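Worked example 2:
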Amino acid sequence: MSLLRLRSAVPLGLLLLLPLLPVAQAQQAETLLTLNSVVEDAAKNYPAIQISQEELNAAGARIQLARTAYLPRVDALAQFNRGTRNNVFGSLLPQGIIPSMSGPVIGTNNGGSVWGSATGVLINWQPFDFGTRSASVRAAQAGRDRAFAANLRTQLEVETASADAYLSVIASLQTQKAAQTAVVNWETLRQSIHALAAAELRPGADESRVNAEKAAAANQLALAQQAVDSSLATLRKFQSSPARSHGTDQKLLTKAPEAMGKDAPFAADSNPLMAERKATTAENEAELKALERSWAPQFNLEGSAYARGTGAETNGQRLSGANGMAPTVGNYIVGVNITFPVMDFASIHAKASTQASLAKAAKANEDLTASNLREQFEQALAELRATETIAQNTPVQLQAAETALDQATARYKAGIVAIDDVAQTQRLLVQADIDNSIARLNVWRAFLKLQYIRGDLQPFLQEAMR
């Protein structure tokens, strides 16, 4: 059996995520891991699911952030200062460098300083906004829905991958078992031929040929052991407390899934990936509506109460001591502030055009995902049917190979055929033994793939527990 053949016999599959497997070192007493326990462990503790859950929590927090826009804004201020009180007529363009000055021009320019103080509260509330804030909230909610669907998709992928890893361990162990049997059989044949060669009943070249075949079988056993170790490493990745040695549930080799519902209609919407694509489309459309409503007048109901104190008189005199350090003159004001970002139209229009393209792309991706899922379902169904047929035929091949080896061995001992016939039938028996075990596991793997595409692994897990 070639290295390529060995590797193809133990595929990891395109499915990546399902917990639950045990693996056995035959000489040790081990705790049996079941497929369901591995999947359950991975679904609860695999880091990818925890990452997805935290992303969902963050999306929920963004909804609360968007809703805070409905709350009034309240700003408070208190300050104390000492400076000159010179003032001049004139205007300044809006800026943030020169401090503001109030009071009349006193007609002097001196450097005498006075105390000043101020305190106040400003309340700002937007009573209506033409739907801008509600659109932002809907966009945040759509993002939360997308994160929720992504969390379900991640969980499905992790469970599927862990289950596939479990099946890969069983497959690699069966390959190892067949390779070990081949080494033992070759050693038994070698001892028999050695006795015949010593009695000069068979040529010594026959013993050399058997030694070569035994060495080749030992090489295949080493590759099989590598496959076991690799599949175990993958399986442990999905376990929260991986055991270095454990046994697998071998009953999957003796039965096939029955209540598979192969003829049940397929609905692409049942797959979490499809739900994620729909949520992404809704999120992009909500963000587009929020942008379209952002170019509108802003009505702000504002109210302020404040007080000021100063150590300067209107006649230019200065008050002595700590005068001005405490606010002594109060005011209040209530009104409506209306602003309209007229020139933002161009930038908002450009942003809306960009977002509209993203929304169309998301919708197209949604349609593409639905088409791909339907294709994958049909392919998985065809694969399941083929693996069922193969699993029915491999026992016949195995029995025929066993019979052929018995006959070839008997004929060789009778001197009717050469050692080549025995070697060939021995290799065929090893391959038939591996194919027979892998065929049953491939039915389970195809069923797993089918349920992964359906978006529901429960039928698969229920069959495994049966």
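DSSP finds nine helices and four strands in the chain. Residues 345-413 form the longest helix (69 residues).
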